[in-house]
Amino acid sequence: MANSSSAYRRILLRIGIAGVVVFAGLQFVRPELKNPEVTNELQAPPEVKDILRSACYDCHSNETKLAWFDQVVPAYWLVVRDVKTARQHLNFSELGAQPAAKQRAMLYEAINQVQLGAMPLAAYRRMHPEAHVSESELAVLRHYLETSTPQPEVSAAEVSAAEKQFSDWVAAGPASAKPPAAPNGIEFPADYRNWTPISSTDRFDNQSLRVILGNDTALKAIAENHINPWPDGSILAKVAWTQQKDGQGMVRTGAFQHVEFMIRDSRKYASTKGWGWARWRGTGLKPYGDRPSFSDECVGCHEPVQGNDYVYTAPIRGQR
After folding, report:
1. 32 burial class (0-12, 13-18, 19+ CB within 10 angstroms)?
2. Number of Cβ atoms within 10 Å of the Cβ of 239
3. Considering the entire predicted model, what is its pTM?
4. HSE (CB half, 13 Å, CA atoms) of 77?
5. Cys-Cys link to 182, which of 15, 78, 117, 186 (CB 3.0-4.6 A)?
């Protein structure tokens, strides 16, 4: 028995030594994580930058600083992957090179992700509690975005022109010819203007008004409270117009911006969370995106509401 116990201990010791050797060897398998030069950093007031630096910059900038425990493999591999992915989505060190409207849109999405608890990632917050964004800090970010957004008033002629465009849209849509398909192959649903409104919203970052429409399948799902998940065949359309403030306290629909669609087909669109995504922009209805993978942007934006089947819209009951 003594010899058996001694042999067992020797085996455990050898396994332990082998494990240490392997662990030590893995520390030399380190994919490179560079911090490129910062040339186009987002320009914002100090109180805004302080919040972003504390909560966001370690992943979403070229100024990544890793804690000591982030340097240890295999944690290091995960951190490098996450930082590279984060920079692709939003990089505050490069955001300043984008047009002002794109900067506001990216910051709006970031604030929205924080408000919904999707960012910073829960796993990251557990190991990096300093990345927490408080309610007061969130209010500072929102205030900055709201006050930095232009809110021009428009003339009577511009109001009249927008009203005519809206009437034309109701009658025939922004373009009479069928537009090209989206890069992922989705065809333009030309009859969407005849669908029923199910909700509305606005975006303060780009001064837009949005109406959400649903096809018959979506309406039936709403009536039967079958919207998590939505049934296959449901289609939601979001139509966006520029806000117009006429100087008399009224906000009206201005120029047509775009229309975007979520098409539910759990098998066909399994790789994009069961939804097909597409957007057409401007009165010429130009398809958005330059490659089929553009819809990954849409999925990323809707990730915070995955518990609602990736749909932000809270339908207004009683459409029928």
Report:
1. exposed
2. 22
3. 0.72
4. 6
5. 186
CB 234 within 8 A of CB 196: no
Paired tokens of 189: 């649903």
Sheet holding 208-214, edge to edge: 196-203, 208-214, 235-245, 251-264, 275-281, 286-287
- What 8-state DSSP symbol labels residue 255? E
3-state DSSP percent of the chain in helix, strand and coil, to 5: 45, 15, 40
R_g of the chain computed on alpha carbons: 25
Domain chopping of the chain, boundaries: 46-147, 156-308
**What's the whole-number mean pLDDT along residues 78-89?**
86
Q: Give the list of residues 6+ apart from residue 283 with CB closer than 8 angstroms, or none.
A: 165, 174, 175, 255, 256
Do 136 and 226 form a contact (C-beta atoms < 8 A)?
A: no
- The pLDDT assigned to 126 comes to 81
Instruction: Judge contact between 189 and 235, C-beta under 8 A.
Output: yes
Give the relative orientation of helices 46-55 and 135-147 as an angle to the nearest 10 degrees: 130
Backbone angles phi, psi at 189, to 5 degrees: -75, 90
- CATH assignment, 156-308: 3.50.70.20
Residue 191 burial (10 A CB sphere; 0-12, 13-18, 19+):
exposed
**Which stretch of 124-133, 136-145, 177-186, 269-278 has the lowest confidence by average pLDDT?**
124-133
Q: Give the pLDDT mean for 19-43.
A: 73
